[in-house]
Amino acid sequence: MLGTGKALLASTVIWTALSGASFAGTVEGSATYRERIAVPPDATLFVELQDVSLADAPAVTLAAQRYVVSGVPAQFKLTFDDALIQDRHRYVVRASISQGQKLLFTTDTAYPVLTDGAGNSADLVLVQAQTQVQGTAMLENTQWTAAVLNGAPIETEKHPEISFAQDGAFAGTGGCNRFSGQAEISGNRIEFPDNMAATLMACPPPLDEVERQFLKALQSVTTFAVQGDALALLDATGEPVIKLVRKQ
């Protein structure tokens, strides 16, 4: 009987320990780029797993790893605490290749993983950083009119507009009130300030709702993409929240 009691006690201790333990999950995949350029011998690949559930807050990094990379495609594997993952949250993987402090390649979109039907693997395609610098210059001295907002065409008589000057300075109208400020732009990344200057004139419906959604959407923007006369402002998940056309 004593032996049986000890066995039961040992089983209870093991079960208690296991029930309180957190289990490690993994996200793995590859990173590559399309250019036929050799990877410098001292280049490193940096990969991050991020929680991007809150559109109006910075992404939260759950796991990150740096690798010495001698060629592409380069394989990666991130380990994270399973207890941090929630079914209703959104998770993405981003990566960059650097040589010392010089950024060579980076993802220009977010790759979803883990939830919303996504798996635990991702094959990343990075773009050359120099190309993104050219994209940043495309915003300077340009004017744009919003055509699509949060996935729906804008159907009001007046559309929100925004123009960019030098060094991230911008100004525009939500269709009723004017606003201006200084955006932080680096490569294809852009962040609009919370405290932009704006007039406070009352707007008639439905223009008031369009303006409210437009200004709110600007706060969720993290990256941009320019293609011809089209500009897309994207959120942390890589989804375009505002689509604009160049104002002639």
What does this protein structure show overall?
This is YbaY family lipoprotein. It comes from Ruegeria haliotis. This protein is of the alpha+beta class. Helix content is about 15%, strand content about 45%. It contains three helices and 19 strands. It has helices at about 1-20, 130-135, 205-220; strands at about 25-35, 45-50, 60-70, 75-80, 90-100, 100-105, 110-115, 120-130, 140-150, 150-155, 160-165, 170-175, 180, 185, 190, 195-200, 225, 230-235, 240-245. Strands 9, 10, 11, 12, 13, 16, 17, 18 and 19 form a nine-stranded antiparallel β-sheet that branches. Strands 1, 2, 3, 4, 5, 6, 7 and 8 form an eight-stranded mixed β-sheet that branches. It has a two-stranded antiparallel sheet with strand order 14-15. Strand 18 and strand 19 (about 240-245) form a beta hairpin. The longest helix has 18 residues, at about 1-20. The termini are far apart. The model is unreliable at about 1-20 (pLDDT under 50).
Write the topology of this structure:
Elements: H1 2-19, E1 24-33, E2 43-51, E3 60-68, E4 74-81, E5 91-99, E6 102-106, E7 111-113, E8 121-128, H2 129-137, E9 142-149, E10 152-153, E11 161-164, E12 169-173, E13 178-182, E14 184-186, E15 189-191, E16 197-198, H3 207-220, E17 223-227, E18 230-234, E19 240-246
Parallel strand pairs: 1-8
Antiparallel strand pairs: 1-4, 2-3, 2-5, 5-6, 5-7, 6-8, 9-10, 9-11, 9-19, 11-12, 12-13, 13-16, 14-15, 17-18, 18-19
